[in-house]
Amino acid sequence: MLALLRSWLHRRRLERTRIPAAAWWPAVATLPLADRLNPTERERLRDLATLFLREKALEPAGGLELTPEMGPCIAAQACLPILNLGLDYYRGWSSVILYPEGFLARHEYTDPNGLVHGDYRPLIGEAWERGPVILSWADAAASPAEPGHNVVIHEMAHKLDMLTGEVNGLPPLHRDMNVREWSRVFNGAYQRLCREVDWGRPTALDPYAADSPGEFFAVISEAFFTAPGMVIGIYPEVYRQLQTFYRQDPLARSDG
Would you kindly state where each structural domain of the chain is located, as residue ranges? Predict the structure, then answer.
């Protein structure tokens, strides 16, 4: 009953607030993979993006002034991973904070002696558990032009990972998926990448993915959507797991 009510509310909202075509199509034109969606998928992405902007507030920071194209551009990228999953996968948070460019974020860590330290790190994106997604607008706007990289998809992958608690590279799998098989495939690929990075070998995947299993999942998710040929060529088992989880096959839409 609750699901039916939510579906009815979504339809009513779409009837009143669907992103106008004049704002939507320029946003999609910057997304090569979105441009390759079939007509039904493109309309579904537009509906999801509309609901995303209805439920998530865009909050400017660092002197940024919001312009009309920013919302559709961010929402289109954010909703591509959940195209066949639904907006409920982004539950539990309500805002996207946009900085003009990269920003400094304070992080605390505990050393081996139990002392707590704080430092500032330059970032272009960050996702907080039960909190906002923070993005550099300059990098979010540039992401579609960089195969293998997309900061919006990266942070949304973290949000999916957080649905199961700790950010460890294990999002909520579907009933037809096997946790042990997922762990075997991802752990093997992650350890392989870590060895390559430790040995100083060049890697097709961003070496930042070796930072942790959670970062590996986020980095390979952005590559899955923006450079699927690279992912299936190097990590075919990971590609199949991501294909099953996201319920999409980006390779079938792209030429690499």
Answer: 164-256
In whole angstroms, what is the distance from residue 115 CA to residue 109 CA?
A: 8
| Domain 164-256 CATH assignment equals 1.10.10.10 | no
**If you count DSSP H runs as helices and E runs as strands, how many of each does the chain have, helices first?**
11, 6
pLDDT tens for each residue of 44-98:
999 999 999 999 999 999 999 999 999 999 999 999 999 999 999 999 999 999 9
Two tokens, residue 20: 């106008």
Exposure string of 131-153, with b = 16+ CB inside 10 Å and e = fewer, is: ebbbbbbbbbbebbeebbbbbbb
Start-end of H helices in the chain: 2-17, 21-29, 32-35, 39-55, 70-79, 137-142, 151-162, 179-198, 213-226, 228-234, 236-246
Global confidence as pTM: 0.88
d(CA 88, CA 48) in angstroms, rounded, equals 10
Rounded Cα distance between 69 and 90, Å, is 22
Which among 101, 112, 53 has a CA at the least distance from the CA of 77? 53
CA distance 14 to 50: 7
